[in-house]
Amino acid sequence: xxxxxLLFKMLSSCSKVGDPRPGQPYKGGSFYAxxxxxxxxxxxxxxLKKAFAAGLTFQIKSCNGEExxxxxxxxxxxxxxxxxxxxxxxxxxxxSEVCIVL
Length: 102
Known about the structure:
By secondary structure, the protein is of the alpha+beta class. Helices cover about 25% and strands about 30% of the residues. It is built from two helices and six strands, in the order ββββαββα. It has helices at about 40-55, 95-100, and strands at about 5-10, 15, 25, 30-35, 60-65, 65-70. The strands form three sheets. Strands 1-4 form a two-stranded antiparallel sheet. It has a two-stranded antiparallel sheet with strand order 2-3. The longest helix is centred in the middle third of the chain and has 15 residues, at about 40-55. This is E3 ubiquitin-protein ligase. Belongs to the Deltex family. One of its GO terms (molecular function) is ubiquitin protein ligase activity.
């Protein structure tokens, strides 16, 4: 089937109050997520978009002494294949699981 590919561009910036180390510069990046291009996938894409707008998609983590943006607690499929072990498909439970989280 065809895939929806979502791109989240997170710019490098300075962390805010409430982040692990306020005022520290952190590194952004481009993050991709994949969904099936069907009704359920499109509905999930809308929910993921709302979560992103609410600031729930990413978190800032310290990695080797450098602050960087990483995925938060909402599971995203970052690959179209490779199965569940590689954050990809096939994974029959993913859409229902992510909708429960959202």
